[in-house]
Design a protein that fits this description.
Length: 267
Amino acid sequence: MALVDIANLDFTYGRSAVLSGIDLAVEEGTTLGVIGNNGGGKTTLLQLILGLREPQRGTITIAGMSPRLAARRGDVFGYVPQNPAVPENFPISVRQVARLGLVGKTGMFRSTAPADLRHVDAVLERLGLAGASDAPVGSLSGGQVQRMYIARALACKPRLLVLDEPTTGIDRRGQQEFVSLLADLKRAMGLTVIFVSHDLRAVTSMCDRIACVNVTLHYHDTPQHLPADLVYRMFACDLEAIGVGTVCNRPEHVHAPGAVEALHIQS
């Protein structure tokens, strides 16, 4: 069953088409990575899913609702932005930031249910932040900041977790730890995950399916079937990013463009 259903979606800035004719379904319980060229519409697609923009044509539904209605519900999706700002000198603790994720669910001036507060503490513990929950946010490391904002996104017990470039600035070891963390969260909380990334290594490590977007939807399938010629066009054939560790020949030397595994490799 599709938790997110996008049909015949168009979006333009002035006369310039940013997204055109996008049809995309995200099945419940899956992880979708959205990749593509810079300026190809990935961020705009994410904004449309989050209800921050409205399409000129076509529809998006999340759990049968429009994105804006889903956002007003407060418990349908959680969002982790890219490189979120940290109020270093603002007197707010890690636990208080995480609890902000409950505002959309309970309202700004309504009391929060004790069960929801316990859930936030449980999420902080699962993310390894229990010992830092009373610490000021300005004292956190970069990795802790990321986990704090994931806790905020998960505070409302969402069905869908949306992440924007979650591995930016993280080294390979940190990426591996993040992959394991995301898998654990997904399994424990029954999440469906969508994330935008330019990092093919992260995408192929974490995703059940990949959508390659560059104005139109060029590809939507499993990482294992990602066409080699598409890899070259979109990513200058950086095979190290998908774990091969070498650089491929130009497209005219690619013997089997139907799969990444079929690339002719230079050692």
